[in-house]
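Most newcomers find our protein records easier to grasp once they have seen one. There is nothing in a record beyond a sequence line and a structure line. Getting from the letters to the tokens is the skill we practise here. An example says more than a description, so a record of this kind follows:
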Amino acid sequence: MICFVATPVGNLRDITLRALDALRGADVIFCEDTRHTLKLLSAYEIKKPLLSCHKFNEREAAEKILALSREGKEIAIVSDAGMPVISDPGNVVCRVLKEAGEPYTVLPGACAFVCALVLSALPADAFAFVGFLPDKAGERKKLLGRYVSYGGTLVFYSAPQDVDRDIASLYEVFGDRAACAVREITKIHEESRAFRLAEGLLGEKRGEYVLLVAGAPESENPLCRLSVREHVRYYMEQGMEKKEALRRTAGDRGVSKSEIYKQTLDL
């Protein structure tokens, strides 16, 4: 049998008895980083062959997993932390197995964004997990634009070196909203900090972050679904002078007029 096994996101004790049984019973364990997984296995005195399955070799690893399963091998698949597939390798493996008709199962456990949602105290009745934002500014803006009018809490992953950049992008697209930054989940220095997107997150950034942003209010202006340039152009096409169009757009989006001005210099 093939098992996708959730592993701890921080505290090594956050692993289920079933997960340990699966790791001990596996003939081979496929993991994102063999060095990282070795630390977990060593903590529980488990010695098993480790093979890599990461974003650069996932298709090749999937074919190997399929072949080994058909030989009757017991296989465990893990990522560095949390649930495989969720912003981690594994989805390609799932597709290959589904297409081949090969059965597999999932052993539940830790997942960083679920913990962060609880720690944030933001509404959890409806939420959208977006994951990591793209590196390119244009792609970030395009992706975030899909969620401008979404009323549920939005959840993102962010590396420490990208936190300020990502918050700036969130503010640019969503305007000023309530937000929360959660880091070091289940570890000694676990932290959940509420802030406003307009303010940004002060201080040194350490550890992996989960950023959570309040959803759009019910009264969200539909014009805010447009890009900033399209928003300003709409008012100008209604006969407004550019200065007034900038003021109205800034008011709609809850941002400063200077922010709008910088993005529309050539209009």
User: Anything to note?
Assistant: The longest helix spans residues 58-70. Strands lie at 2-5, 28-31, 50-52, 75-77, 104-107, 127-132, 153-158, 178-183, 191-196, 209-213.
